[in-house]
Amino acid sequence: MEASKGCITKATLQASRHNVKKTLYGPSVMSLKWVVSFLPIRVVPRAILVPFARVALLYYKEESIMRYKILEILEKNSKATPKQIAGMLGLNESMVAEEIISMENERIILQYGAIINWEKASNKDMVIALIDVKVTPQRDVGFDQLAAKIYKYPEVREIFLMSGSYDFSVQVVGKNLKEIADFVGKKLAIIDGVQSTTTHFVLKKYKVAHVILEDDEKDRRQVITP
């Protein structure tokens, strides 16, 4: 019996399942929009819609897991190529490449960079400070507008909204202690809404973004003999 116009046939459902499986493991990646494009404008019978929705949900979950694994690899090694990632995860190279491009366009992947041990790279002085900032949030905009006023300065490397006794944690880089002090006193403290600041200077880095900076990673704790 011929299917009515606008309804999903059993053959179409089977074809869509095949294409979803092909999407997960084949040479190309298609978005969830492609999957739901089979849905007609009219109301779809429950017997057809439910299994179809399960297929779409399976695709969504598989894609999320795949993305997470790709991101984990790139976070630890931004030089990893789609071919290398595909080999590690048992996926198709072109599929991995397309997922990476999609995540770049969606601003999930913001930037690729290197973790540098500046103490070895240069003889120039560099001081890093972590500044606790307590503020009064502004009506209607909350903390966002104050954060924008702070992160616009080039000295600011990172800024986080925190829970606890202070509101922002700001990482600042300068050439020396005086440069950090000038930033706090002449730029940060005078921002309308900033109540107080507490500055902590970084003496040494041991681990950054999963990377141990020490040459010898063995336990160097002094052995105490009786």
Record the SSE blueprint.
Blueprint: H1 10-25, H2 32-36, H3 46-76, H4 82-89, H5 93-105, H6 118-121, E1 127-135, H7 144-151, E2 156-161, E3 168-174, H8 177-188, E4 194-201, E5 207-208, E6 211-212
Antiparallel strand pairs: 1-3, 1-4, 2-3, 5-6
Describe this structure as you would to a colleague.
The model is unreliable at 1-36 and 218-226 (pLDDT under 50). It contains 8 helices and 6 strands. A hairpin with a 6-residue loop joins strand 2 (156-161) and strand 3 (168-174). 43% of the residues lie in helices and 15% in strands.
Notable characteristics:
disordered C terminus, flat, disordered N terminus, 226 residues, 8 helices, four-stranded antiparallel β-sheet, single chain, alpha+beta, two-stranded antiparallel sheet, 6 strands
